[in-house]
Amino acid sequence: MRLLDTRTGDFVWVNDPSTLRFSILSHVWSPDGEQSYQDLLRLQDDVRTERALNPELPMDTVLQRASPKIRDSCAFALANGFDLLWLDSCCIDKTSSAELSEAINSMYTWYSLSTVCYAFLHDVDTDEDPRRPHSTFRRSCWHTRGWTLQELIAPLVVVFISSTWNSLGTKTELAGVIEEVTGVDQEVLNHTISLSSVTVARRMSWAARRVTTRKEDEAYSLMGIFGVNMPAIYGEGALAFGRLQEEILKQVPDQTIFVWDTGHSSLDGDEYDDSRNSLLAASPAAFAYSAQVTAISQDDLMHRIHVATPPTWYIPTSRGLRTMFPLLSVGAAYSLAILACMDEHGQLLALVLKKCPEGDVHTVGTVGWNAVRARYRSMLRSSSWSPLSAIRLERSTPGEEQYTRIVRLQRYPSRGITLVDVVVVHRPPLASRSDTPMIDNSSPTADVVLRSMFDMEAPSTARGGLFPRLLQDFSTALLYFCCSFALLFIAVVAITALLMATGVRLRPLRMLPW
Q: 91 in a domain, yes or no?
C-alpha cells in the first residue's frame, strides 16, 4: 500500500497497513481530472533535483506545488495528528494493470483498516445544519457516486468535511440523516451488525441509484460490500456485473439476488425484454425496489412447501445457470421456481420460468401470466410482485397484459412441487443502446442478437409464430442456393471462354488399363 507523508508529500510504501495509524480521503473526482501518481512522482523528482542544488528548500516544497486537494487534505490530516494519508487519485499507479487490480480488490480492506476516513464534500457549505430537510449535505453528489458507498460503510470512523475544510460531523452523529439519504441502515453504518447479515437484494438496493464513470465500476465498487474478489478487467463493460453476481452466488446462499425488477412495463416494447428475461440483473439499478425482500433458511422453506431442499448450488454453463429449484408446473411451458425468500408481507416469492422451444433451457418471466394463472385458479392463487405495479396500471391500456417476472404465492397446492435440475438463462445480452454491441456466442440469446443486428425484420417476424419463421428460413436457404448456383455457372462459363481464347483444347481422360 502506497501512502503519502503529510509533512513532505513523499510516497511511503508499507506492506502491512494493519500495523500503522493512517487516514484516508474519500472524495468525488473533479471533472477536470485529478493529480495522478505519475504527476506527483514527477514533482517529487523535480524537487529532489532542486534540493541537491539548494539544500535550503522547505521540507513541504512538494506539497506547495501539489494540487489544492492534495495539499489541503495533507494539511488537514497533519493538523489532526496523522503523518500518513491515502488518496485513491495519486496513491495508485493506474498505468499498471496488476497494481490497479490489486488496489481495487484491497480497497474495502484499506478503508476498514484506516483510523479515520475524511469524506470531503466539495459542494457542501460550512454554515448550515446537515440535518435540515433541504440542506446541501443531503443533496451532495458524494451520496450518489458508486465508489463512495464502500467508503461510507467500511471505515469505523468517518468525518465529513465541508468545501472549506471544516468538520460537519461524524458518521455516527449523522447516521439518521445518512440512512434517509442513502438507505443504508444505521446499524450497518455504526458497525453494530455485520454486512453478511443483510440480504443481497438490500445491499444491491443501496447502489441502485448511484452512478459510476466507467460501466465496469458498477461491479468493482461493490466487491468489498459482498466480500468477493475478482480480476478487474476494464473494457468488459456490463459483463463485470454478471461476473460479480456469479461470484456472490459462489459464496452467499441468498436467493434474494434473483428478486429484482427493471421497472419497465410492456409499454416499453421489446427494448428491455432480453435483459429482464435473464436470471441475473444487468445493473444494480434493477434492485431499486428490492430492499424489503427477506431471505429464509432452506429448512424454513422445506416446512412451508413440504419438499426437502438441499443446500443451493449453481454451475454456470454455456446455455445458462444450472441449479435445482422446487418447481410447481403450470402448464406445458410454464413453471414456478419457488425461492427461499419472502416479500414484506411474509409471502413466498417465485420466479416465472418459461421453457424455450429449442430445448430444456428456461427464461425468466412472460407477458400473459394472468391467462396462465386463470387456468389454474382452483389450485393456485398468486399475484405479480412488482413495486411499480400501480404505476404500470396507470400507464397501461384496458386489457393490456403486463410483464410478470416474479409472483408472490398466496395459495399453492401441498402436492405437485418437486425438486428439479434446471438450466436458466442467467446473463442479459451484452449489447446496449449506448455502447458498441458485444456478442457472447455462448449465450442462448446470441443468435437473436446477431439476427437483430444484421436483419432488422427477423425479431418481429419471429414473433408471428413458428410457420412464418420456418417459411422465412426456407426462403433464405433457397435464395442462398440460387445465388451459389448462379455464381458457379458464371465461373464455369468464364473458365471455358478463357481456355478457348488461349487455344487450349480439353482432352478427355483416358481409361487406365486396369
A: yes
- Asked if 317 contacts 295 with a C-beta cutoff of 8 angstroms, the reply is no
The answer on 453 and 351 residing in a single domain is: yes
Best CA proximity match to 163, nearest among 122, 115, 220 = 122
How distant is the alpha carbon of residue 465 from its chain centre?
34
Range(s) of the domain holding residue 397: 255-462
> With helix as H, strand as E and coil as C, how does 314-355 read?
CEECCCCEEEEEEEEEECCCEEEEEEEEECCCCCEEEEEEEE
Is there a contact between 185 and 142 (Cβ–Cβ < 8 Å)? no
Report the chain's terminal Cα–Cα distance, integer Å.
83
Asked whether residue 9 is domain-assigned, the answer is yes
Residue 262 is predicted with a pLDDT of 64
Helix, strand, coil shares of the chain as percentages rounded to 5? Answer: 40, 15, 45
Nearest to 208 by CA among 189, 191, 222: 222
Q: What digits encode the pLDDT tens for the residues 66-118?
A: 999 999 999 999 999 999 999 999 999 999 999 999 999 999 999 999 999 99
Backbone Cα Rg of the chain: 30
pLDDT per position as a tens digit, 139-194: 999 999 999 999 999 999 999 999 999 999 999 999 999 999 999 999 999 999 99
C-beta separation of 388 from 289 below 8 A: yes
| Same domain flag for 484 and 424 | no
The verdict on 313 and 338 lying in the same domain is yes
Q: Which among 205, 222, 306, 220 is positioned nearest to 256, based on CA atoms?
A: 205
The identity of residue 225, as a single letter, is: I
Decide if 509 is inside a domain. Answer: no
Q: Cβ distance 199 to 193 under 8 Å?
A: no
Pair 419, 495 in one domain:
no
Closest CA to 17 of 37, 31, 3, 27: 3
* Residue 342, phi then psi, degrees to nearest 5: -130, 160
Task: Tell me how far the alpha carbon of residue 390 is from its chain's centroid.
Answer: 27
Name the residue among 370, 311, 248, 411 with its Cα closest to residue 352. 370
Residue-by-residue DSSP string for 369-423 = HHHHHHHTTTT-EEEE--TTHHHHHHHSPTTPPPEESEEEEEE--SSSEEEEEEE
Question: Do 269 and 140 belong together in one domain?
Answer: no
31 lies in the same domain as 163: yes
